[in-house]
Amino acid sequence: MPTIAVEQIKERLKGKIPKAADVVFKELHTKEKYLEVFYIKSISDEAVLHDKLYKPFFEQQHPDEFKNYLESIPQIKSYETEEKTINEILNGVAILFYQDSVLLFDSKVDRNNSVLDTTVETTIQGPQSGFSESLPTNLGLIRKRYPEAFLNVELTTVGKISKTEVMILHDTRYADPKTLNKIKDFLSNVNIQMFQTGEQLLDAIKKSNRALFPVMLVTERPDRVAVNLATGKVILLVAGSPFAVILPTVMKDFMASMADIYQTYWVGRFLLLLRYIGFIISVCLPGLYVATTSYNPEIYRVQLALSIAGSRNAVPYPSFIEVLLMLFMMEMLTEASIRLPKAIGPTATTVGGLILGQAATEAGLVSNIMIIIVSAVAISNFVVPINAFSFSVRIVKYFILASATFFGIVGVVIGFFIFIAYLVKLDSFGEPFLTLVQSKPHKE
Amino acid sequence: MRTIGNWRIYGLVFSAVFLLSGCGFKDIDKRLFVVSIGVDLAKNSSKKYLISLKFAIPSASKDQPNEFSIVSEKADSMSEAVRILKTKVDKEIDFSHAKVIILSEEVVKTSGNAGIYYWFPRRRDVQGIAWVAIGKPTAQDVLNVKPKSEQLPSNAIFLALGKDGSETPYIIPSLLFDFKYRLIERGIDPILPIIEAQKQIFEINSVGLFNKSHMILHLAPEETKMLNFLKSKEEKSAIKLTKGKTTVVIDTQQVKAKYKIHTPKGKDPYIKFEVSVKGRLEETNRRVTNNQLSGYEKAAEKSLNKEFEDLLVKIQKADVDPLGFGIRYRSRHFNNDDWQQWKRIYPKITFKVVTKVKITDTGLIE
Amino acid sequence: MNRYYLYLILLNMLINVIMFVPKILIEYRYNGAVMGTLIAIPIGFSLNVLFTKAITKFPEKGFPEIFARSRKRWIINLLFGIISFAAFTAGLISLLGFVDILRRFVNPEMSFMYLLSVFLAGILLITKLSTERVMYLLEIVLFLNTPLILFIIFKAFTSDYLVWDSILEVGTHLFTKPSLKAIAAASYIFAGYTNLIIFNRIIKGKIKGWNFIMVFFLGLFNLFTTFFIPIGFHGSDGAQEYLYPWISTSDSLRLVYSPIERVIFLFLIFYMGITLMSVSVHWHLSYELIKGTYKESKKKDWAVLAVFACISVACALFFHTLLLNKITVHWMLSRFGLEIIVVGLFYIWARRQKT
């Protein structure tokens, strides 16, 4: 016979959870025994309930035998507090009332657990699949790539409403405990109502909630996660998001593509150098163009100066307007081709890039050289492998452009160094964002 | 982070204020680039000089070649001329690409032009690496020449003097800073190449030698070549020599010259030159076999010795010092009056030239 | 291995071009600069070694930390004040000198204040960073710029127009009586060690002997380059006519195949970064020392920086190039004296601390 305590719990739970269409309260009877099950249909896996609960219930005659069975299967947990239980129900756990005990039966449905292909950080060689949207699957993926006993996983929740589960992974040998504590503090202080994916943390790191540069890396590649674990980084996995967050992240990580370790040494180095050059070009080139054409044409050799002067002859406005105009067009194009369906994307680029550029020069709106510069900027911007970072870089070039417009070549150089100083000033959980020689993450 | 925000706002406000007042922002198409400057003596005028600027006018399309225009003005000084010239053109005159400065023969032959010579290095926008040359018959004529192969105005002179294009031993280019250096330094005197304007081409094959104020000596093309050998600046060259009835031409691949000033006590001072020439036979009017080469070497040495010595004596007689014997003497003597000593020694000094010629072979055929 | 130490020394060696050192040396080339330079080398070098040895007895501590528990506050505050003033003026001279160069060679139509403001913005931002971060930035700036300067120096040494005879001619004035001003100016090359007053905070461990050997040879090479290369290009008689011998020297170099033909622009672009860093390092030193004299207060920090900015603007209004040049000569002399006193006192004090 159910005791009074159990009865009370049952009543209170029923009271707390409103009678929605998918809330199920079932009573099962046989001659000898009696079971009540309470769960939310839409987030619980009824097949599991059927296989693991209903079938044995009707197959096993003796009440004690069934009780033993219940205690032996791995899905079962015992009741702790009412609050926790309500949370569990909302996450898809079924509550069992059997005899004089209340049991929690883990019947969470695990949808979206198919592993996705990488789409953002693609490499030519190396693994091609990324994370799934299911937390256990993702953890499984990492465990598989990182079979170490030192891998520690902690669970916490973020988000006032969403109460999203977040897993904190780190290798106890390599990770710096100070950094780890900072990260935990940070997570517990994050003030977000709906936490859906790790990217939301990028802004939360600033008091003002306005950051220009990301100081954590959001990745979709399990192999990147595994590699970073081994260098002492801390990984956050967010339930429902196919992206993992790597902390602390410095600029070097943003410039690294996973392809680097799948290439031979010199090829990898060359690609890295290429990226840094691309980074500098995309930041400085528009500013340099304005500074050199409008303040110091003597920098060019005479032949080049004359050909630029010639191509600018028909352009009716000053160089910085010309640059702004073209950069604006380019940003539009980039945005448009991201939004457009994949099938139309290339068409937009062709129409925009080729025809618009050609027509603009013909019409005398911009100079030929300008078109080359803008495309060089656009292309070199995409060389930066991590998207979040390359978006930030896109903005910085306007700062340099403005300073070039006002101060000429001095503005470009000083602006660039101020930008570098800003990067050096940034830090990611105690680690300086930019240094020439990154200190070894292994702290023995 | 707040600091950065503050600075940016501060910077923007600051710069916006200043932008209104204008600050040298001038687009490249609003500038008129001077590619070469010519200095002549003014004729039939109270003013002293005739200054000509050659502007490059960029063409919008790459199909048409670039045009140029020459604007001249009579004035007593460079700066005066430039001020007046500014009123004659629609765009800002930009001297930063003035790569050639041409002084007419008349100008360099008169003394008292230091003001003009110093105007160029004093200005920040005239390149220190501009070439200086003598224009013949006038600087304006040289500016006016437009060779057919030329894509940009004055590019032909740039290429010739810069040795990016043709390489010849008859040109001794001189850069502005070097010209100034030689004008001031005691013990070394300027050399300027002479550009002779003909209808559609230039001829640059002789040089003018300066003392500290004006041109003293004009060297013929062959002498120019010899001087170039002595400077060890030019290696690709040809030496013609006659031995008996045979005339051969040696294509030199390596010419090295070094000298030492000897001032033995009680004896006359002398300068000993050692020149080594290495090359191969290029042309001959009779058959020459490889065995006979040593004979030609001897003959070449003899004739070269004579030519070098003649040239050196000619320079010495004119009391100029383009090779820098004086500075060499000064640099090897610790006493403070070495310059006075040298001035006494130089007119009396004798030259001993020892040439070593090595003809490696007779080319692909004997 | 202590690269941070070398960076600090190297920075000073590079900035001397802006600090009128070549100008002063060339001015006295016939009147004792050669001997002066030769004398400055052992003096500068031994000051360097003494001070470095003394301060590395206090690992990872700057002056404010070393003297934190000293009782006679007013002496310490006075000392900090003087050193801080010297460091500030060092930065100020190079800043004003360089802005003047920029205004002459790069932006002739831009107003002085305008150019100064962009530099001040950068410098104050960097000055406020933590010591460690300033060093990281310095490392990056040097990394980006040093290959360029090495290339330019290489080009200068291999140029056809470098006349060794002119250099030797100046060398023959070896035996003239050395001039004190030349000694002071030449010893500035080695003065980078003074930055350790603050930057010792990030220097870990002992500075080994080969660091000093490096400093010695770098200094030798640097002095030779600074002093003699302009003479080789502009003549023993002509070099002193130039207001900025090194800038004009860089304008005498031509890169035949590069898209930028005139080396002067590469040179100036390179020096923009170096000057920015050098002024920032000096001012950081000055700022941190002043900070050491009062208790932590954000408002006061900002006030110090504001004073820095105001003084520079005021000086920019007051000084012109020739006056700046003259003052620099006297500044060099007083700096030289101050350096000897500070290093001497500190060395003796540090030895007594040990025993």
TrEMBL record, chain A:
Q: What is its main location?
A: membrane
Sorted alphabetically, which InterPro entries does this protein's record hold? Spore_Ger, UPF0353/GerABKA_families
Q: Where in the cell is it found?
A: Cell membrane; Membrane
Membrane topology, from the record: Multi-pass membrane protein
- Read off the Pfam families from this record: GerA
Question: Taxonomic lineage per UniProt?
Answer: Bacteria, Bacillati, Bacillota, Bacilli, Bacillales
Provide the alphabetized UniProt keywords: Membrane, Transmembrane, Transmembrane helix
Q: Where are the transmembrane segments?
A: 234-251, 272-295, 315-333, 365-386, 398-424
The Swiss-Prot or TrEMBL record describes its family as follows: Belongs to the GerABKA family.
Task: Determine the domain of life of the protein's source.
Answer: Bacteria
Q: What is this protein called?
A: Spore germination protein
From TrEMBL, chain B:
Main localization of the protein described in the UniProt heading:
membrane
Q: In this protein, which residues make up the domain named Spore germination protein N-terminal?
A: 26-196
Sorted alphabetically, which keywords does the UniProt record give?
Germination, Lipoprotein, Membrane, Palmitate, Signal
Topology in the lipid bilayer is annotated as:
Lipid-anchor
Q: Which InterPro entries match?
A: GerAC_N, Spore_GerAC-like, Spore_GerAC-like_C, Spore_GerAC_C_sf
Q: Which residues form the Spore germination GerAC-like C-terminal domain?
A: 207-363
Q: Does the keyword Lipoprotein apply?
A: yes
Q: Where in the cell is it found?
A: Membrane
| One Pfam family in the UniProt entry | Spore_GerAC_N
| NCBIfam families given in the database record | spore_ger_x_C (TIGR02887)
Q: Which family does the record claim for this protein?
A: Belongs to the GerABKC lipoprotein family.
What this protein is called in its record is Germination protein
- State the organism of origin: Neobacillus kokaensis
Gene name of the record: grkc_1
TrEMBL record, chain C:
Segments passing through the bilayer? 5-26, 32-53, 74-99, 111-129, 136-158, 178-198, 210-233, 263-281, 302-323, 329-350
Q: Which InterPro entries match?
A: Spore_GerAB (IPR004761)
Q: Which UniProt keywords apply?
A: Membrane, Transmembrane, Transmembrane helix
* Family matches, as Pfam families: Spore_permease
Q: Would you tell me the protein name for this molecule?
A: GerAB/ArcD/ProY family transporter
Q: Which organism is it from?
A: Neobacillus kokaensis
